[in-house]
Protein: BAR domain-containing protein
Organism: Psilocybe cubensis
Amino acid sequence: MSWAGFKKSVNRAGTTLLQKTGQIERTVDREFADEEAKYRIFEKECQALQKDSKAYWDAMRAMTAAQSRIAETLETFYSAADRTSEGAMAGHAYKRSVDDLDTTFTRELDVPYRTTISEPLGKMCAYFPVVNEHIAKRNKKLLDYDSARSKLKKLIDKPSEDPTKLPKAQQENDECKEMFDMLNDQLIAELPQLLDLRVPYFDPSFEAMIRMQAKFAEEGYEKLSGVQRYFADNVRDDYAAGQLDAQVEGILQEMRELSICGGN
C-alpha cells in the first residue's frame, strides 16, 4: 500500500470512529440499502446452490459406486453357493445392470451436468467478488464524502482566519460527492438488473437438471426391471402379505440354533 493509500485508510478509520460517537453525520441511502440487501440474499442463495449442486452430484457418484460394490458382493455370495440357481442369475443380472447404469452415469450425464449446471453456477458466483469490490469502493467514497462534508460544515459554522480554507473544503466536498454519487447511482441502477437476469440465466440449468434426473431414473427403472424376471411371480404378493418376513425370521432362527451363533 502506498503512503497516500495508507493515509486514506487511516482517515477513513477515523471517520468511522467519529460516526460511531456521533461527531460526524453518517449518510444513509435507503434506496441503495434496499438494493444491497436484495443482492446479498441473491449472493447467499447462489453460493448455497453451488454448494448443494456439487453435494448432490457427489452423492449421485457415491451412490452408483456403492451400488456397484453391493452388486459385486451379492454376485459373489450367490455364485459361491450355486452358480445355476435363480439367485445366482439374479445376482449376475443385477451386477450387469448397475454396471451399465454406472457407465451411463459417467458417459452420458457427468459431463453434461458439469457444463450445464456446475459451470454456469460457478461463473455466476465468480461475479460476486467483482460486485463486492464495487460496493466496498462505494462505501469508502461515502466515508470520504461524509468527512469532507463535516469539514466544510465546521468551516461554515466557524470561519477560519485563512480565507483559502473554505474554498478548498468546498472543492473537496464537491469532488467527493461527485465520486460517491457516480458509484452509488451505478450500483442502484445495475444491482436490480443483475438480479433480474438470474431467472433467464438459470432457466436452462434448471431444465437440464430435471432432464438428467429423469433420464437417470428412467435408465435405472429400465435396467433394474429386467432383474425382476429372475424372481418368482408371487414374491411381491408374499412380501405384501408378510410371508417373506416370516421366511426371513425362520432362517434367522436356524442361524441362532448354530453353536457358533450362541445355540446349544
Q: What stands out?
A: The chain has a mean pLDDT of 82. The chain is about 85% helix and 0% strand.
